[in-house]
Amino acid sequence: MAILTKIITTLARIKFKKWLFNFGMICAKKILAFHQKLIDIAADFKLPIISIRSDGAAAEFQTQNLQVDR
Question: What's the superkingdom here (predicted)?
Answer without folding.
Answer: Eukaryota
